[in-house]
From TrEMBL:
A Gene Ontology cellular-component term: nucleus
Residue ranges occupied by any N-acetyltransferase domain in the UniProt entry: 122-260
Annotated coiled-coil segments of the chain: none
UniProt KW keywords: Metal-binding, Zinc, Zinc-finger
InterPro entries the record matches: Acyl_CoA_acyltransferase (IPR016181), GNAT_dom (IPR000182), IDM1_C (IPR056511), PHF12 (IPR042163), Znf_FYVE_PHD (IPR011011), Znf_PHD (IPR001965), Znf_PHD-finger (IPR019787), Znf_RING/FYVE/PHD (IPR013083)
Name under which the protein is recorded: N-acetyltransferase domain-containing protein
An example molecular function term from Gene Ontology annotations: zinc ion binding
Organism listed in the record: Genlisea aurea
Cross-referenced Pfam families: IDM1_C (PF23209), PHD (PF00628)
One Gene Ontology term from the biological process aspect of the record: regulation of transcription by RNA polymerase II
Amino acid sequence: DVPVGNWYCPPCCCSVCSRNTLDETDRRNIDPSVLICTQCERRYHADCILQSGKMNPYRNPDGEWLCRDSCQQIHSGLMKILGKPVSLGAQNLRWTLLKYKKSDSFSDDPETCSKLSTSLSVMHECFEPVRELRTGRDLVDDVIFNRSSKLHRLNFRGFYTVVLENDDDLISVATLRIHGERVAEVPLVATRFRFRRLGMCRILMDELEKRLTELGVERLVLPAAPSVLNTWTDSFGFSVTNPTERLLFIGHTFLDFQGTVFCHKMLIGNDSASA
Ligand SMILES: [Zn+2]
Ligand SMILES: [Zn+2]
Ligand SMILES: [Zn+2]
C-alpha cells in the first residue's frame, strides 16, 4: 500500500536529505540540477552535495558523476575492461564486458553492436520474449540495449552484457547491473542450446563473481525461475532470500519476473566461496 500524502519511493529521493528530487515547476521530471550517480543511480540535490562539503559536485567531461569512492572504484574498474576480451586459456574461451552506447551506430562500433544482437538471440533461445504489460515491449531487448525510462522499474540504463565466446561462437550471455558496493544483479543468464551441460554457465559465473569481488561488490542477486531454482541453490551457492534479508535491499529496484524466486549470494566474507 502506498501511504497517502506527499510520498516518494526511496530511489526518487535525495540520498542526503531524503526529500524528493522532482522539478518544482514540472513534477513529472527530475530537477535538472539534481546529480545522479552513474554507477549506483542514487540521486542528490546539488545544494545537499555542496553543504555536505565531502562530495565532488562536478560531472566529468562525459557528463558522468560518481557519488562516492566505492562507486568511482567500481566504475573505473568496469571501464578498464569494457569491450576488451579477457582470455581464459582453456578451449580458446574468452569473456567480454559490453555496453550499448546511445551514440553507437552500427558504423561506430560494429563489433559491439553485432555481439549485442547475437546476445539477444541467445537470450531468445532460452527465454520467451518477456513483454512489459503496459507498453508491450520486449524487456530482454530493452535490457541489452539499455533503454532508459523515468520509471525505475523500466529504466535499464545501468545494465552491462557479459559474453563468453570461443573462436567461432558466442556461447553464454549474462546481463549485469551493479548497484554500488552493496549489491549487483544478474537477472538473465543464457547458454546456447548446443553448448548446454558443458559447464559454460559455470565458467562465466565464476569469472563474473571473481571480478565483482575484486571490485568490492558484496552480494549478487538474481530472480530464479522455479525450474532452475535448485541449480542456483545447489550448484551455484545461492540462497532463497527471506523477507528479513530482503529488507537489506530496500531502495534498490531489481529486474524481476512473474513467478521467479529472489535469490542472493554473498561474495565477500563468504567462507565457502574460497573453499
Ligand atoms: Zn520513485
Ligand atoms: Zn537533498
Ligand atoms: Zn554512487
